[in-house]
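Input:
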Amino acid sequence: MLTVQNVNKEYRRGETPFFAVEDANLQVENSDFVCVTGRSGSGKSTLINLISGLLRPDSGSISLDGTALDTMRDDALSHFRNTHIGHIPQGHSLISYLSVLDNVRLPYYLYPRKDDVTARARDLLDLVGILHLQNDAPRNLSGGELKRVAIARSLICEPALLLADEPTSDLDSVTTAVVMKLFSEIHRRGTAVILVTHEENLIAYSNRHLIMENGRIKE
Amino acid sequence: MKVRRLSTFSISAANLLHRRYRTLCLVILVAWITLIMAIGSVLGTGLLNGVHTTQERLGADAIVVPRNASRDLEGALLTGVPSTFYIDGNYTADLQLIDGVEKLSPQIYVSTFKSEHCAAQVQVIGYEPKTDFVITPWLSDRTTKSPEYGEVVVGNSVYRNSGDEMLIFGRNYKVIARLDKTGMGFDQCVFANMETTRTMIADYEELPGSILMPEGENLVSAIMVDLRDDYEPKDFAILLLNDLKKMKIVAVLPQAMIDSISKNLDLTITILIFLVGALWILSLIVLAIVITVTLNERKREFGVFRALGATRRKLLGIFFTESSLIGIVGAGIGIGLASLVIFPFNLLIEEALDTTYLLPDVSDSLFILLGVFVISAAMGPLASIYSARKMGREETFFIIRDGE
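Output:
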């Protein structure tokens, strides 16, 4: 389903170039729940951003469901990301001036569809257990609740692949367990998950474990 | 419960309302500059209108007055300061002999004062309809007939309508027309024929405590002179000063008077345009700085939009809609405030300016205000251009990093 082949991404720190991702190769299937661990600065987030198409690789190729992402124009790639990839960015990722419900409906605003987005957004909020907060502003929610809204939003377009960048970094252990169970449930329903974390104890929820070190992937 | 549809407008508006203090400050900034631009534009146009009208209405090449009365004449014509001065009307015959003088028409000025004998303090201009070539042409805008004995035509600022009576020195006169606004002294004047005006003077002299008028049957205040095209008004003025100096009269040249006003006005308006322009640019810079700083604060927000599939174009749409809303709302408030200042206080502005001033008519005013609105509303999008370019240039601009 997802194929990452010989991907390189180089940045510069002052005058010195360095590889954020170096010669990355990865094959992910629908049945995979991949946990990517590694130290801060090892290239985990860059890998996620390359897979989601937010960054372009300097070399190599990335394809999802047979579509090459690295050669697509920005408009097409953005549309593809919206319809095929659920992306949960690092930290607080809700739009502060929109209600919980509007945050979940947001991907549909970007590319309107005919189906009833409001009903679907409410179903997803119900799935993550916070339907009662649908009209609240994000500032009134706890860290765990915010993450659950972000998860609901990432699922609104029924993505084939869910990317989660440090989704439990600011959560306590009880809330982390609740959130991870949600990812397990999403995976059980047939969505491939790639979860980036520096917390080793989350590996237990996945069925594949990758380690990133100095931009290189080790399985 | 009905849920509103998400749109670029609703998202932009929600963000502006969410950051209401910042939004309010930016709207006030745009409203303030709009207010200044709108008032400046309307006042400037009013001053120019006043000069143009004055130019049209002073249809004489030269106005002959007593030697010490040229300033009084200027005050009477431009700002309506009542004044009274006299020369011997027989000079008309002497002036007619000058080669190059085509037409002559005497006028007589009488100042009234507000009392039990007079309805208002006005300047009465008595003229001879038979010889007049200055007042009759523009009097015909409102009345087809010249005032006859016992009748007067009033300027726009004299609050009498056609058919009313007006008390002057104890006698009532029938108002046959009220003139359109001119923005000059004529607005405070009452026009009558010579015979009527002489009756007013006679009535004045009957009043207790009145100052005796100079003796003479044929007194006039000014003689309007129309010169042949090839005769320079300046030469006529020099002739009066040199060859006819024993007559103690002087020629005031309306065109020179207007040129002088016009020159001063041009300078004033140039300075006004420069100051308003500088203020506009300064406001634009402040707006651009605030928007750029805000953009840096909003990188995470836009990063989230990108992660959800927003194209750069979509983000620019949201960004420009927000800045346009700030521009439009600010400009709208500024125009509203300017209208509240300009229209209700027009008369006070006129008095305060103490020069020829004619508020542009409603359609012209609306056109000016619309132009100012567009220029002000454009500040929002213009101030966003730098930030928008920044958004579009960097690949990693929208990448959400730890700690941001």
